[in-house]
Write a structure and sequence with these properties.
binds zinc ion; single chain; 6-stranded antiparallel β-barrel; 5-stranded mixed β-sheet
Length: 411
């Protein structure tokens, strides 16, 4: 097969062309693919996705480079026959988008070189943004924004973008930003007075066509700095999205758009203080509740004097739907009383939970009691000798399990 003539090399704005079908074949994925003698369709490569469009009555859904130098047009619908003359139409909005991102990348990459001597090591154009991996030391928002500012100066200068087809000797005399791995004739893209770079992609005619370059995000990645950027129409749609998001957030706080972050930070701080106050209140409530439960036990035993005599006080209680945190807090507050054991349980959906605790003077082993009690509930539990937690699915056995634990604790 012969190498396909690349019409996009000489005119990246050519969208309609006539060609002859050289072969009809399949690509590596078995999809129907057409080879033409000439094409304006750009095949995936150099970090840039393929063009799409029409070929006669067929839809071009992908374009890939074959090993022999042909371009495979992956088509759906009426596949043209070999030898036929066809008209190709490239989807212009998609091509323009790629031209904007790709040319924007040349400019941004050279801005990093000009300002910081930082080379671009790789480039990827994705569905909603593009990435360059830049060899930049000590990255910061300021450094990256300065490069973006410089890139936009060049965009708004309306500089010519020229294509030079040169020999390697001629290329060697040009101030190339990066060396080419290719042999033979080279295609050098010049951004007038700013950047010379070997490239086979599709570019703007003048830098103004790029419209705007905006960095969205940067992060360190594999020893390099990955800068996510958008250019051209993408910069506008990205701005719209960011603006919508900021306005939606601001309206939740009833503040102006650019005050949303401050308002959120204030709310977060308030929330932290409320949490602290809530914890303090819960602590107080647990202590009061513990005191009441302890008194009830003492009254049942004939007064506090019984405890003073060295008998261990056991507070055994079953609650409904009480969460683990609240149960733990109450158990600790009960165990803060001298010579006291707390055996607490709570029924909930699908089972029961247990928390056992004791004060220093009380001798029983909460860990051992908990293991047995949890087993009785068909579950598992354990902990330290002074504090243990557990539970199981057999909620109907909760009262028995706690009574049994109380009996052992009194021994
Ligand atoms: Zn390029």
């Amino acid at each position: 097969m012969n190498t396909t003539e690349r019409l996009y090399y000489t005119d990246s704005h050519l969208v309609e062309f006539d060609a002859r079908v050289v072969a009809v074949t399949t690509d590596s994925e078995g999809r129907a693919a057409v080879v033409l003698d000439r094409t304006a369709f750009y095949p995936t490569g150099g970090g840039q996705p393929a063009d799409t469009g029409l070929l006669g009555g067929a839809r071009v859904v992908d374009c890939v480079e074959a090993e022999g130098g042909e371009v495979l047009h992956v088509v759906e619908g009426g596949v043209p026959e070999s030898g036929a003359s066809v008209r190709g139409v490239v989807d212009w909005p998609r091509r323009l988008d790629h031209v904007q991102q790709h040319t924007g990348q040349h400019i941004l990459s050279q801005a990093f070189v000009e300002l910081y001597g930082a080379q671009t090591r790789s480039f990827r154009m994705m569905a909603d943004a593009s990435e360059v991996d830049v060899d930049l030391r000590d990255p910061s928002d300021e450094k990256i924004e300065r490069a973006v500012d410089r890139a936009n100066e060049v965009v708004w200068d309306e500089r010519r973008v020229r294509v030079h087809n040169v020999t390697p000797e001629e290329a060697a005399r040009m101030p190339l930003r990066k060396d080419s791995a290719r042999e033979g004739e080279l295609r050098i893209i010049e951004i007038e007075g700013f950047d010379f770079s070997p490239c086979g992609g599709t570019h703007a005619r003048r830098t103004g066509e790029v419209g705007l370059v905006a960095a969205r995000h940067w992060e360190r990645a594999k020893g390099l700095v990955r800068v996510t950027f958008v250019a051209g129409a993408r910069a506008l749609s990205d701005y719209r999205r960011a603006n919508r998001t900021a306005r939606a957030a601001a309206s939740l706080f009833s503040v102006a758009r650019d005050e949303a972050a401050d308002a959120a930070a204030r709310l977060q701080e308030e929330n932290k203080q409320l949490q602290r106050r809530l914890r303090a209140s819960e602590e107080l409530a647990a202590r009061a509740e513990a005191r009441e439960l302890v008194e009830e036990v003492d009254e049942g035993a004939g007064g506090a004097s019984a405890v003073a005599g060295g008998v261990t006080r056991v507070v055994a209680r079953v609650f409904e739907g009480r969460d683990a945190e609240s149960l733990r807090r109450l158990a600790s507050a009960i165990a803060a009383h001298a010579n006291t054991i707390a055996l607490l349980g709570s029924r909930e959906e699908g089972g029961a939970r247990l928390v056992f605790a004791r004060s220093v003077e009380a001798g029983a082993d909460m860990n051992a009691l908990m293991r047995e009690a949890s087993q009785a509930l068909g579950g598992r539990g354990g902990g330290r000798p002074d504090m243990a937690q557990g539970g199981g699915p057999l909620a109907e056995k909760l009262s028995d399990a706690i009574e049994e634990a109380a009996r052992k604790a009194r021994q």
